[in-house]
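Researcher: I'd like a candidate sequence for this fold, 231 residues long. If you have to choose between options at a position, lean toward the conservative one.
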């Protein structure tokens, strides 16, 4: 392998790493504090206000991921023969809320929106809500008027929420950052830089070893004044 080709491979590897790092850095996740959420009884919800987030900065593949546990609770007016059906109901829902007079056909008489979204996937303690389903429930893909995301229990569930994450956010989603979010952002950036540097160093070492091995396969021939291959 010629040195010029080796250098080209090294340059391509470094460019690939840099591009991958840039793409990764542009996509982040928002992890909300769930420590204060009580056990939610049927049709009770907990609100996460979005004062310092720009909710228009969600990628097309954005989704809300919730980790939870729940217990079945019978309702006063339940039909006994329907208990198994009630137990199979989805125990969790996401509610997209706005009180800022958003431009959507889902606006109610008070000028706000209370849009309920069921997960596209749930079970085993994890529920996933897609951006597409949120748009369908909210009535528009313009989330500039979204003021809060609420997580709630449906009609037959005692719900315990342990994690609430919005994935697929652009890194400029913050209007203002809390100290914890700023520290997390710095930590993630440092990890990316160190990981990229490590990959580059390993690549350089590998290329160096290839060059070294190539040179050891040749010996100087005094008769011809050239290096000849010995192996």
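Model: Candidate sequence:
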């Amino acid at each position: 392998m010629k040195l010029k080709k080796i250098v080209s491979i090294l340059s391509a590897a470094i460019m690939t790493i840099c591009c991958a790092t840039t793409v990764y850095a542009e996509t982040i996740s928002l992890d909300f504090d769930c420590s204060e959420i009580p056990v939610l009884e049927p049709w009770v919800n907990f609100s996460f206000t979005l004062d310092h987030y720009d909710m228009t900065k969600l990628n097309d593949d954005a989704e809300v991921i919730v980790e939870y546990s729940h217990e079945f609770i019978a309702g006063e007016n339940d039909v006994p023969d329907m208990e198994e059906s009630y137990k199979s109901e989805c125990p969790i829902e996401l509610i997209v809320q706005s009180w800022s007079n958003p431009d959507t056909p889902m606006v109610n008489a008070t000028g706000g929106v209370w849009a309920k979204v069921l997960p596209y996937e749930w079970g085993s303690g994890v529920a996933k809500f897609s951006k597409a389903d949120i748009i369908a429930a909210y009535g528009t893909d313009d989330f500039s008027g979204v003021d809060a995301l609420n997580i709630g229990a449906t009609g037959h569930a005692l719900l315990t929420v342990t994690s609430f994450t919005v994935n697929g956010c652009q890194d400029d989603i913050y209007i203002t950052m809390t100290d914890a979010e700023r520290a997390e952002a710095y930590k993630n950036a440092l990890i990316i830089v160190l990981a990229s540097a490590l990959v580059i160093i390993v690549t350089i070492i590998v290329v160096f070893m290839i060059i070294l091995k190539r040179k050891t396969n040749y010996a100087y021939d005094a008769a011809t004044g050239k290096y000849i291959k010995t192996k």
